[in-house]
## 1
Amino acid sequence: MLEVQALTIRAGADTLVKDLSLRLEEGSLTCLIGPSGCGKSSLVKWLAGVLAPDLHAEGAATIDGTPVTFPHRDIAYQPQQDTLFPWLTTAENACLGLEIGGMDRRAARDRVKALFPAFGLEGHEESFPDQLSGGMRQRAAFLRTIVQDARVLLLDEPFSALDAVTRLHMQDWLVERLAERPRAALMVTHDLFEATQMADRVLVMASGPGRLVADIPIPMPSAERSETALAEIRSKLKLMLLKETS
Ligand SMILES: Nc1ncnc2c1ncn2[C@@H]1O[C@H](COP(=O)(O)OP(=O)(O)OP(=O)(O)O)[C@@H](O)[C@H]1O
């Protein structure tokens, strides 16, 4: 579905990401892990079309074999910071992606409002971002991304600010929604439990320069995952990360 070929990202003379290629399939949730600073966010930002202007990227991408440039209407992106507009209410922020995509304001409102209870945001539709907790803000940003009809989802540490129970709830919610409506999802996370529980594939990045060093499939359906099998995969991932950070 989405294919990246030979992506290199430079900051002046420094190479941040080098010659990175990957393919994301529809109906697949891929987690991207790697040490801090290895270039995970830079890759995702490039795919979202929001790479900082001082960075220079070379590389190509296709969707279903057709060359694309970013930003692209088939791609929805949740950045690491919630980036809610402080002058818009929670509901208005959550509607933004839909409205930019051309949806009528009332229809966008109805679609996001239906999801407020599942996101623990009910009663906060008219609150402004500075009236929300960090976790609520992150859920509002997640909502803004997930309601879009985009075929590709890019989620950069979408649950990092959530408490443990809410995080588990949102992880399950996302896995269920992706099962109902397959998309190609790429999720950056530092949490190996989250990665092995949710993903059907984990990509490992190394730094200096940023590159992919492993592609680990997790072929089991999430309902059938045994703790023993997942613990084995986590140990393998942990060893890789330790090697990359030592
Ligand atoms: N605008 C920029 N100009 C110069 N260097 C940058 C810029 N943005 C990021 N970098 C550098 O690029 C490298 C990769 O950063 P990036 O945010 O992609 O890493 P990351 O793997 O997502 O890290 P983390 O896990 O901590 O979020 C880092 O060394 C960072 O300092």
Note: Helices lie at 40-48, 90-100, 105-113, 134-146, 164-180, 192-198, 227-245.
## 2
Amino acid sequence: MGVEIKVEGLTKKFGSQMIWNDVTLTLPAGEISVMLGPSGTGKSVFLKTLVGLLKPDAGSIWINDRDLTRLREHDLYEVRKLFGVLFQDGALFGSMNLYDNVAFPLREHTKKNESEIKRIVTEKMELVGLAGAEGKLPGEISGGMRKRAGLARALVLDPEILLIDEPDSGLDPVRTSYINQLFIDLNAQIDATFLIVTHDINTARTVPDNIGLLYHKHLAMFGPREMLLSSEEPVVRQFLNAQTIGPIGMSEEKDADELAQEQGQELPPLPPIALQLQTSDGTRRRAERPAGEWCRENGVVPPPGSFMSKNAGVPGVSQHTAHTEHAEPERAVS
Ligand SMILES: Nc1ncnc2c1ncn2[C@@H]1O[C@H](COP(=O)(O)OP(=O)(O)OP(=O)(O)O)[C@@H](O)[C@H]1O
């Protein structure tokens, strides 16, 4: 079962360059969260700081009542065992076949014998749909397969927390849909706490339980998916709807002239909130909530047509591949 990660007042600089300041959020145990933000806002730095690869300049990261930022190297090494990390390129060793790549953490960090290792590697390779590809070298397989091999490797130590950096980079929309489905199915099976960094709006709108947005050196918002997808806050609205009108410019913030030019321009209405992606076999994730529940509980009227389809609702954004539906009502909540 996943663990909660509580981030308090986290600040990271490189020299005099502030990356983000005073980030406070809680990644709820066993839930899937997505972190968004324009390029260069420090999303990858945030993942690396969470796993202890980078040291923050201020703030705390609480996991199981221990502050990661205050741990000595030996204790940090122990806490790191809770994490599985999937880096952007899968970070596979090019000279090792997939079997040896996936077995690597088990050989490095455990005393398991080769028959135990074989059982675990085979199980994880099957889980990510790579059974039969054990003998292939990373250079012989597609980008999507490399990501899945990286994911199998991130899973072998049974992590409680899974950090995933841009799983969709370099993948076509269909493969992105498959990997998104895999995350939902995996979350149901292993119940870990997931944090996914992505630029893919379709992923952000349909996969997570929670969404965060880093912008202009701070956390603009973090909360349940329905909260951000119904938000009128200009930065959140612009980013989640992939619009040019709003405070975010080509190179981060727009200047006063650019914003003045936009005055009076009408924003398109918020698109409907799509149904969240569900498990392919119809089992329920522990973190899953009925569609529209957050809006109902918080007195928020979602955009018309919400919770009626699996389409992310943003123009030009592809529809998800089919998957089993639950018996949840698919009516609009108003
Ligand atoms: N080790 C480092 N030393 C110095 N600066 C760094 C280091 N790592 C990252 N940075 C800087 O931190 C900033 C944020 O980088 P990061 O890769 O986290 O952004 P990102 O939001 O993940 O971007 P993208 O969406 O383009 O992947 C960049 O300006 C980058 O150059």
Note: Residues 227-262 form one domain.
## 3
Amino acid sequence: MLRIGDLAAGYHPDTPVLHQINVDLAAVVVHTVVGPNGAGKTTLLHTLAGHLRPTTGWVLLDGRDVTGWTPVRAARAGVTLAPQGRRLWPSLTVTEHLTVTRPPARRPNSRTWTVDELLEMFPALATRLHHRGHQLSGGEQQMLTIARALRTAPRLLLCDEPTEGLAPTMAAHVIHALQDLPRHGVTVLAAVPHARAAAALSDTVHVLAEGRLTGPITTSGGQAEQALRDHLALTSPALPDHAEAHR
Ligand SMILES: Nc1ncnc2c1ncn2[C@@H]1O[C@H](COP(=O)(O)OP(=O)(O)OP(=O)(O)O)[C@@H](O)[C@H]1O
């Protein structure tokens, strides 16, 4: 659905963060982009969600040029960001988060999600309906961030570090929910900092290093972790074996 070619983006004209990014998110699966802190993962997701205008290159959605679109146009077309840091509305309750966010009226082919379906996906939220954003645990906030994004009926969900800082059981729940989305026609592109997390979460991994993407690596063959280590070693030649566990 989404194709990106020769894309460059950054925050200052003289210092691009992304250089010549090429990627084709044709398959309705979970894709990850993995790379160390500062590699540009957030910058890539923000560019795709329309928060940042690319300096060069193109973005095609179903063959239509959408380069430089706004977040509103991106969301209307079915591309929604679940941001890092959760960015909830602190004074709104769980129910209010889910009811004020609605799918666009005219997008017949997208899977829409009722509040009840989202509470079934994330039962922890069902017991917190009247709690405000700032009263939720980190895991509950992450679930609500994803649930709120799903309310816009995305075809492509961009998730920035969806398991960051979560306890293992919460992280497992979030991973399970994301892995189930392709079954509903939703493609996922998640940014993660660790090779192992990328291999566990996704079907296809794209490695971002020094502003460039390599891959994709398919995780189904069992070789993903070694392939990722090889790719990441390109930018960290001195990395000792035991350091991988902390990447
Ligand atoms: N708003 C901003 N203004 C200027 N520079 C920025 C801004 N946001 C990020 N950067 C810089 O862009 C580069 C890429 O940052 P980005 O957040 O995209 O990386 P990341 O891979 O998501 O890392 P992390 O996992 O630490 O968030 C870094 O050098 C960062 O300092």
Note: The chain has a mean pLDDT of 86.
